[in-house]
Write a structure and sequence with these properties.
Length: 554
């Protein structure tokens, strides 16, 4: 039987069913939850970032004459306003989806709204490849409409996946589990580059064409039907991971924390966890009632402000500042790549060749810079802690971007290899740093009643930063002007340093139960202090054997 009382709580008493979750050894059930939730983030990242690989192609296809009057003339690009809309509209949808689904995740339950996000993502990924008309206005209008609703579905995945994983996990490895879900974003970014590279490579093989410098007209027209199919296929392929995951997501049971602490159904929560852990757990219905009574305060109450106001300010500001830099990096890769010689000049390539080289460069940067950072975080987050990793990441990103900004012209002319290394290191420390920890911390800091909503508010603040990147920073980098590129990099360095200082508002959560962190166990002083319970490292692992619950079986 699981013991009552919060392990290492230092003041309050926890429920037996929650103690059982906190002390359970890592089991296949946890791994399955990581994969199911993580595939949503794989889809999210693919859908959000594949637009980077095809946005220049859209300019060549639908706005071929925009740069002919320049000296020297260059291939067509989308006007700045339209380019920002195409790349940024999904982020606006994501922000709104985070707030809506985060709220309903607390009001209706995590499971009830979890499947809706995947359906919306799959349908709108397919819709993104369709056009209601042939002229540029119709094509871009259709694309923006569906990408807004695609972003809306993606937004729901942030608070729901983070909250579900945090409430399933044991306290010793909770950080690694949540970070592993988020690390699938890195896999999605890799596949966005890889799929675009493969699809464009196939179409390029069967549709050769002269470079734009050799023939301005036929470099596009010889490939126009193929190129038009190519970008649509890349966007529509984003539906497949969502469809493949839907069945398994619907099989996931509601989290025991929501069932017990919000619905007040100790018996159902206990039954669900007994199937998972195969041990007998006291139902403790009376203690559940006391737990609920002690934690009835709302998000807008003075009690919440007293307990968690500074925490929410910390999670929202750091995520906002991080995403200005992180999405600027990803959305403007196509503009940075020529400077570090990962791609050639646009006029030296035809339309499909440009997609291929941009996709290849994005794939390489993601594979060697972005991807490792996520998994280093997974390995170290429950050893170093969230706080230190976030401080380190912000500081190193600020340092590298400042160097690239100050020395931009020198690096562009004489230090291509060094420029590429510095650029890759900013990606590494974004992901072995605040891009991972800003996702983890809001899933741990706040009480069960408002956990999904607070994560949604934090994530939406991040997407507001991403919108600043799409509509502000990207405007500086779109034309590749050295003066504006320097300005952008220095601005991003400053935002990262601000993120470093705002991190001091966020306490460490490593090694403590969710109830202990949030004060739901009655130990409000311990929750505010942000101490780490070292005794958790000494606790012997559970010897309980596990069988999958009937609700998770195929």
């Amino acid at each position: 039987m699981a013991e009552n009382g919060a392990a290492g709580g230092g003041g309050g008493q926890n429920l037996a069913v929650l103690d059982a979750l906190d002390s359970a050894r890592t089991q296949m059930y946890h791994m399955k939850a990581i994969v199911i939730a993580g595939m949503g983030f794989f889809t999210d990242a693919y859908d959000l970032f594949c637009i980077t690989t095809v946005s220049k192609l859209l300019g060549r296809l639908y706005y071929p004459d925009t740069n002919l009057g320049k000296n020297p003339p260059m291939p067509g690009t989308m006007p700045v306003r339209i380019n920002n809309m195409v790349t940024g509209v999904a982020l606006v949808g994501t922000l709104m989806g985070q707030l809506v689904f985060g709220y309903f995740g607390d009001k209706l339950g995590r499971k009830r709204v979890y499947g809706i996000t995947l359906v919306l993502m799959a349908a709108c990924a397919i819709g993104s490849g369709l056009s209601f008309g042939r002229d540029p206005g119709a094509v871009i209008g259709t694309l923006c409409f569906f990408r807004f609703w695609l972003g809306f579905g993606i937004g729901g995945d942030y608070p729901l996946s983070a909250t579900i994983m945090s409430e399933y996990a044991n306290k010793k490895t909770r950080g690694a589990f949540i970070a592993a879900v988020f690390a699938m974003q890195g896999v999605g970014i890799i596949f966005a580059g890889l799929v675009s590279m493969i699809v464009s490579g196939i179409f390029l093989h069967y549709n050769p064409a002269p470079t734009w410098k050799e023939d301005k007209y036929y470099s596009v027209q010889d490939q126009k039907p193929a190129a038009d199919y190519m970008w649509r296929i890349v966007l529509m392929l984003g539906a497949f991971p969502a469809v493949a995951t839907f069945y398994w997501r619907m099989k996931m049971p509601e989290t025991a924390r929501y069932t017990a602490l919000i619905e007040g159904n100790a018996k159902q929560a206990t039954n669900d966890m007994q199937k998972v852990l195969e041990i007998r757990i006291d139902e403790e219905q009376e203690k559940v009632a006391k737990f609920r009574a002690a934690n009835e305060y709302s998000l807008l109450s003075m009690e919440f402000a007293r307990r968690h106001g500074l925490h929410l300010i910390g999670t929202t500001t750091t995520w906002f500042l991080l995403d200005i830099a992180f999405y600027s990096q990803n959305l403007t890769q196509k503009d940075i790549f020529p400077a570090i010689k990962l791609t050639g000049g646009a006029d030296t390539m035809n339309a499909l060749r440009e997609v291929f080289v941009i996709s290849r460069a994005m794939f390489l940067i993601a594979l060697f810079g972005t991807f490792p950072g996520y998994w280093v975080t997974v390995a170290l987050i429950d050893k170093m802690g969230r706080y230190l990793i976030q401080l380190l990441g912000f500081f190193m990103m600020s340092l590298f971007m400042l160097v690239m900004g100050i020395k931009y012209e020198y690096l562009k002319s004489n230090g291509h290899a060094l420029f590429a290394i510095l650029y890759a290191l900013t990606f590494f420390f974004a992901n072995f740093g605040p891009n991972s920890t800003t996702f983890v911390l809001p899933a741990e800091l706040f009480p069960t009643r408002v956990r999904s909503t607070c994560h949604a508010i934090s994530a939406a603040s991040g997407k507001a930063g991403a919108i600043v990147a799409a509509f502000g920073v990207q405007t500086l980098t779109l034309k590749g002007d050295p003066k504006h590129m320097k300005q952008a990099l220095i601005i991003l360095s400053v935002t990262n340093m601000l993120g470093f200082f705002f991190t001091f508002l966020v306490p460490e959560t490593m090694g403590r139960s969710l109830e202990e962190i949030s004060g739901e166990d009655g130990n409000v002083a311990g929750a505010a202090a942000g101490h780490v319970d070292k005794d958790v490292e000494k606790a012997p692992p559970s010897s309980t054997e596990w069988q999958p619950p009937s609700s998770m079986n195929a």
